[in-house]
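Researcher: I'd like a candidate sequence for this fold, 191 residues long. If you have to choose between options at a position, lean toward the conservative one.
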């Protein structure tokens, strides 16, 4: 069954986001924008490739986002501000659908994913200090089991399951892949 926008809206509106208990007080609080692009009835997820000049997660595929600033009233404000700074996405063009479960990632960030929607491919202006490229991946790509690789990775003495996807020249893995997988499978009613 193809995953449609009404399925996603129903899931996000009914979802009570879970919070994580920080491992320690040195955890950096951040938010990311899980941006859905609805273009000619085709639903995609917008992702970015980080430059090698950024402080964290160099060269990785990620969502637009970053750490909470003093002036941000909530995770939504952080995600929208960061998306504007990183890819020139106008805050007013994004319809906020809701939030997903918080997650703590091994690099010391506690992240709130905020789900947003734009209708039509937005005009983007990349901040080339932070973002090398922005691209979209059809939602159906992530739901096709043939596109999913599962591995394990050790972090601080514990083994973690790591999902990854190879989309064209991009390897989507780690927290980004985990958020996409959990969100889209839940919205599609898959285990």
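Model: Candidate sequence:
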């Amino acid at each position: 069954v193809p995953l449609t926008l009404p399925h996603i809206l129903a899931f996000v509106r009914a979802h009570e986001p879970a919070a994580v208990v920080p491992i320690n007080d040195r955890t950096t609080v951040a938010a990311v924008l899980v941006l859905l692009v609805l273009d000619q009835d085709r639903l995609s997820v917008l992702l970015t490739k980080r430059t090698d000049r950024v402080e964290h997660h160099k060269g990785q595929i990620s969502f637009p986002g970053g750490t909470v600033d003093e002036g941000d009233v909530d995770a939504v404000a952080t995600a929208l501000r960061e998306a504007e700074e990183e890819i020139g996405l106008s805050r007013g063009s994004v319809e906020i659908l809701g939030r997903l479960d918080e997650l703590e990632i091994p690099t010391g960030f506690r992240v709130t994913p905020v789900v947003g929607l734009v209708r039509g491919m937005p005009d983007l202006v990349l901040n080339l200090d932070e973002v090398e490229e922005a691209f979209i991946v059809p939602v159906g790509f992530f739901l096709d089991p043939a596109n999913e690789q599962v591995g394990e990775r050790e972090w601080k003495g514990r083994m973690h399951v790591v999902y990854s996807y190879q989309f064209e020249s991009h390897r989507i893995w780690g927290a980004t892949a985990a958020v996409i997988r959990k969100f889209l499978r839940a919205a599609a009613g898959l285990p």
